[in-house]
């Protein structure tokens, strides 16, 4: 699997989400039908997304799944799996908006891809091709 493409796609997805949450928290809360509440919570979430995006962007050239890249694969797999399950649970009890359904599908796709990277060994894949 081309982990460079996977890391770039996840970095861009999380980076754009982080920027939107950091700079437009009240607008996004209103669009999603949530109470405006305290925008600082959404801004902190945006900082988290942006930080994770920077981690993925800087690690994209590394061997992900190897001994040094395994924590990055584990962190991404955990984030997208737990986040995807939480989104699925939330969608089960609320009206489905196209935006949240799309976000859930993106999470599920990244969870599957990072699961594949995390549970396969990069050296074994390289030997099988030779």
Q: What number of domains?
A: 1
Quickly give the structural class: mainly alpha
Strand content: under 5%
Structure annotation, total helices: 6
Q: pLDDT under 50 segments (min length 5)?
A: none
> What portion of residues is helical?
over 70%
**Global shape:** globular
Number of E-state strands? 0
End-to-end C-alpha gap: 15 Å
N-to-C series of helices and strands: HHHHHH
Major beta sheet summary: none
Radius of gyration: 16 Å
Write the layout of secondary structure elements.
Blueprint: H1 3-23, H2 25-32, H3 39-59, H4 70-93, H5 98-119, H6 122-129
Characterize this entry briefly.
This protein is mainly alpha-helical and 130 residues long. It has helices at 3-23, 25-32, 39-59, 70-93, 98-119, 122-129. The radius of gyration is 16 Å and the shape is globular.
Descriptive account of the structure:
This protein has 130 residues and is mainly α. The protein has one domain (3-129). It is built from six helices and no strands. Helix 1 packs antiparallel against helix 3 and helix 4 runs antiparallel to helix 5 (98-119). The chain is globular and about 50 Å long.
